[in-house]
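Quick start: what a row looks like.
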Amino acid sequence: MRAILYTILLTATQFLTAQTATRDQIVSSLPEIEISEGINLHIISPEPIQYVDLSTQQLTGDLPTTQIARIKITDHSDSGQEEKQKNSVSFFNGSNIGIITVVGQSFIAQYKAVYRNQDNLNTITNIHIQPEEMQPIEFDKMIFSNLELRKFAMDIIQKKSEKNPIRKETNLGLSVQINNVYVLSDYIFLDMTFKNNSNLSYDIEGLKFSIEDKKIYKATNNQSIDMTPLFQLNAQKHFRKNFRNIYVFKKFTYPNSKVMMIRLIEEQLSGRTIEMKVNYSEILKADTF
């Protein structure tokens, strides 16, 4: 329940801080959609609708499903005589009734509602929002403090380690495994376990992450990009048998021709080193909190 409430809060925060990244829109340039009394107009969105704004009381609407907005001309027939006279408006063909604004997860679309009388047999009853009608909106990325990242990492480490890890490598009496991958906003969390099956304790010189070519034809052709975690739960440099840790990265991608290389290096001249190659398809298996 706490995770669900946090996701709702995160989504709401991102929505309220959304800012448009396109030109200003003016009323005269808005696409027109026709609407008649007694006929519902359905606006179909390619993604879930966040909200709909109707600029006048002459229009009402609702969201029967997450991707459909249903709009109609307000019916005052059930109002009292005084209220009906107050809201009475005479429409004529081509008159502007108001502005309809539809906001999705990544766009805003606006239309000028134009009245057509019921004698018009060509009145449209549903429209699909077209790409050229969408203005993209960008959400501010959530930036977490180290304190917040530590809390999330602690939530992960309190879970039981997966019996079937995403990836496991064994060599020289050592094993390294990725228990699971989690994603939250713009962050990737790697849940990893290191096991020492020998009687010699292990002193960590370094744990290195990099993106490298999957196939190396010549040593000079190898392109390696180092990756440094933004945060790690434990800074432990020594373990005897088992060591589990959480490593946090900013969201990243890499092509199928490359792999993420993880190297565990021992703090000795002839130390034991173990390597693990992780395909991007395995990163894509990430769970959400």
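That is the whole record. The first helix runs from residue 2 to 16. The chain has a mean pLDDT of 81.
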